[in-house]
Description:
By secondary structure, this protein is α/β, with parallel strands linked by helices.
Amino acid sequence: MTSAAAPRLVCLIGAECTGKTTLAKALAQQIDGLYVAEALRQFCDQHGRTPTQSEQAVLMDAQVVQEERAWVQARQHGKRFVFCDTAPLLTAVYSDHYFADRSLYARARALHQRYALTLLLAPDLPWVADGLQRDGVVVQVQVHALLVQALEGVQAVASVAGREAARQRCALAAVESACGFAS
């Protein structure tokens, strides 16, 4: 995944209700890249519940598999980017937050090196209840703080804030700057 012609993985990461899905889809469409869905949301939709502690590592692996498949597809179709709606690191953060289990951090940090850019989405959008994955503003702020800690020392992290078009412009500028893409 490191050759010059290879697609670049861009991770959008943030606490619940920070617009990851909306922004990842918009960037993929605007830059003609591929979008990778969040494995956690798919799990909740499929099972009608949130994952248990024992399912966290499996969920992390599911995210990796989806990203790898999209990367191969992007390469086959000449796409320059794959926009990932979250990352294994968020699974590690959730495991820490909900289960006081820090065991996934080492692997998640190692996997995080695959991304050419990490877009850290600020918790500055209005909080909206959305099924099983939404626990409220207090959890949103706590998870954001854990993400900031987990991303310490990670290269190529850009903070993304603002609403709607401003948020998209901020993210696009970060992709352009970090990945040498011109729109």
